[in-house]
Amino acid sequence: MEEQNYAEAQGESVEVDELTEEGRARIRKEQAEMRAHRKPAKGLVMINTGNGKGKTTAALGVLFRAWGHNLRVVMLQFLKSQTGKWGEIRAAQKLGIEIIPLGDGFTWNSDNLEHDKALARKCWQLCREKIESDQYDVVIMDEITYAINYGWLDVNEVLSTLQTRNPKMHIIITGRDAPQALIDYADLVTEMAEIKHPYHEGILAQKGVDF
Fold it and tell me: Do 89 and 101 meet the contact criterion of CB atoms below 8 Å apart?
């Protein structure tokens, strides 16, 4: 089990039973070397980007995992409507977890971009307050990349806040087309690639899967 946990932590998909004795010996050796040279824990900046589905879903997985370890968590959502009753909002309210939607729906359908820009700035200001308060272990900024790419937020302002945060605080950023400056600064970047999507077959978003 320890060997499997190691492999999964490295992002590999490995079944221990399928490993040869040589492979198992290699993993044990690598484990010992990592323990001998283990670096102190640090807060990570993690980015989920790409055109595939699952960026927010993956961030929610970390949110609930961290909460299960009694870490202090919060997710701020840049696009989700403040009045929405998404599945994650319902679950968070039952569990007492902070998920704060501060958008007004999907911006490409908006007829008042100045209003959307003001909401994005409001959400970013709250993000900064949460980060600078040092009251959280994990802060998720969901779909913030859109606000940056639309020119509503300065990527350098975001980077400055990340650079001066508590070094043990984890940050998760989601959204398509993550700016290169954020990618360069991040510790972990995952690109979701769309292979197939039911939308292209006329199947719309479904309760419990998409919202």
Answer: yes
Per-residue pLDDT tens for 83-93? 888 899 999 99
How many angstroms separate the CA atoms of 78 and 70, rounded?
25
103 CA to centre of own chain: 17
Report in angstroms the alpha-carbon separations of 114 from 146, 152, 173: 14, 10, 23
Beta strands in the chain (DSSP E): 45-49, 73-81, 98-103, 138-142, 170-174, 188-191
Tens of pLDDT, residues 107-150: 555 667 788 889 999 999 999 999 999 999 999 999 999 999 99
**Cα 150 from Cα 106, distance rounded (Å):** 13
Distance CA 91, CA 97 (A): 8
Active centre residues (catalytic)? 51, 53, 55-57, 65, 106, 108, 143
Can you count the helices (H) and strands (E) in the chain? 8, 6
Q: What is the dihedral angle through the alpha carbons of 44, 47, 48, 49, rounded to the nearest 10 degrees?
A: -170
Residue from 132, 142, 190, 133 nearest 163 by CA: 132
